[in-house]
Write a structure and sequence with these properties.
Blueprint (H helix, E strand, L loop, with lengths): L2 H14 L14 H5 L4 E5 L6 H14 L8 E5 L13 H12 L5 E5 L7 H10 L4 E6 L7 H6 L4 E5 L5 H7 L14 H14 L3 H5 L3 H22 L6 H13 L3 E3 L1 H10 L6 H13 L3 E4 L6 H6 L2 E5 L15 H15 L3 E7 L1 E8 L6 E6 L8 H14 L4 E6 L4 E3 L6 E6 H5 L2
Parallel strand pairs: 1-4, 1-5, 2-3, 3-4, 11-12, 12-14
Antiparallel strand pairs: 6-8, 7-8, 9-10, 10-11, 13-14
Length: 434
């Protein structure tokens, strides 16, 4: 690695780089927590969700609180084309160059998109073992959330999930404040107006900056292509690009629906195309690792049964729905997708229930391990009320669940239930603000 390139990049950070104007993220760690950081902190989430800006927010907070100066911090973006030849052996040159320019070692390391560096986990573990640095890394691969990464880093690691803006953050972006009393005043109309936009536009920060639907769609198309080529095809060396593209398109169209690998494989055979079930399973996993989709297994206490059944898939951001040319709007599916992403944001484990009757979500509370059943529909009508209730009640009875929730666009009531059970109907937008 050319030392002059490293010197230029460090000098740019120290002398020229101006932290951008930031919309504070609700999920960002606060400076007081960072000051005593003893673990490797990993900021993980989809591409363009705002991970880099969260790191900037953290850096700004450290400097404003007087915990660090600019020359105490080394920030590098490993997606910068100038670092394409950076290898682990260049780390010592990096620190030598920083000392040359500042006269001291950095106290803070902020490494953006760290997974672009070869053998990154070994490098970060070695740096952490020195005990000199507080280390924050980021990555746009869901594998960084897996337990084996924490094991590989000897347990000295914790992750922090950053997704596209939540509904709360979207309200903040639009300058709208609220309290519980707002729900019962005319100002509720502002909440619903932003919620309607949120359902169509999604929460990617740069997309929210665009005023015209065409501009938003073009930006989302760019994100879609970048995920496909850089985060999947290049990262996993995919040769069957058309097959991968077909699966990604299928997931786009089947959001909030079951995705059967067997059915997809049969469809390929009918078209005289190759694609084994193992390959398709790997491709589906790549889409999840790239944060394009979420996958929910069928609820079962048997791990084998969970794997044997089709997954229910959701888009990581509902804005991608705008990319479908032939989509006939199903508002209920969009609501369900929003709920799935919020459950994931809250780091809650969820499955779907299917056993003659269907329930959209069985949610496991992390602390108490209690289960909650959630059904999602746009509105309760005479035509669907019985079906929605039957699915919810079947899951509650089978799994001994006491709390049932029906989330709709804007309805609220308590429904009669069996002794020891409670069914609440609540607007999705209000649930998102809890």
């Amino acid at each position: 690695m050319n030392q002059t390139i490293l010197k230029n990049m460090i000098a740019e950070w120290l002398e020229e780089f101006a932290l951008p104007t930031l919309i504070p993220r609700d999920a960002a760690p606060v400076p007081a927590d960072l000051r005593n950081l003893s673990e490797i902190l990993s900021i993980v989430g989809p591409r363009r969700a705002g991970k880099t800006f969260v790191m900037y927010q953290m850096i700004a907070g450290l400097m404003e609180e007087g915990f660090a100066g600019r020359d105490d911090i080394l920030f590098l973006d490993f997606e910068d084309y100038r670092l394409r030849d950076f290898v682990p052996e260049d780390v010592e040159t990096l620190f030598s160059t920083f000392r040359q320019l500042t006269g001291k070692d950095p106290a803070w390391l902020f490494f953006d998109e760290i997974h672009q560096m070869p053998a990154w986990s070994r490098v970060i573990r070695s740096l952490h073992n020195r005990g000199r640095y507080r280390i924050v890394i980021s990555g746009s691969n869901a594998r960084l959330l897996l337990p084996d990464i924490a094991t590989e880093l000897r347990g000295r690691y914790r992750d922090h999930l950053i997704l596209p803006f939540s509904f709360k953050e979207t309200l903040k972006w639009n300058g709208i404040s609220w309290t519980e009393r707002t729900f019962y005043t005319a100002a509720k109309g502002d909440l619903l107006r932003i919620f309607d936009s949120f359902l169509k536009t999604g929460g990617f920060p740069e997309v929210l900056k665009k005023d015209l639907p065409g501009e938003r769609r073009q930006l989302l198309q760019n994100y879609y292509q970048t995920i496909f080529y850089r985060d999947i095809v290049e990262r996993y060396n995919i040769r069957a690009k058309s097959l991968m593209e077909g699966m990604m398109t299928c997931c786009l169209h089947q959001f909030a629906s079951l995705f059967s690998l067997s059915a997809f494989e049969k469809g390929l055979k009918s078209q005289h195309r190759q694609g084994s079930k193992r390959t398709l399973a790997n491709y589906l996993a790549y889409l999840q690792e790239a944060f394009f989709i979420l996958g929910a297994d069928k609820f079962s206490y048997s791990p084998r049964q969970r794997v044997m059944n089709p997954k229910k898939i959701y888009l990581m951001d509902q804005g991608f729905i705008a990319l479908m040319e032939d989509f006939s709007e199903n508002k209920g599916r969009i609501l369900e997708n929003v709920v799935a992403v919020e459950l994931y944001r809250r780091r809650q484990t969820f499955n779907y229930y299917s056993n003659r009757r269907e329930c959209d979500f069985i949610v496991r509370d992390v602390d108490s391990m209690n289960l909650q059943a959630i059904q999602v529909c746009w509105t309760l009508t005479t035509g669907n009320r019985e079906r929605e209730l039957r699915g919810l009640l079947a899951a509650m009875q089978k799994l001994s669940i006491s709390q049932g929730l029906i989330l709709t666009y804007d309805e609220e009531e308590i429904l009669p239930a069996a002794p020891g059970q409670r069914i609440t109907v609540m607007p999705v937008w209000k649930w998102l603000l809890e």
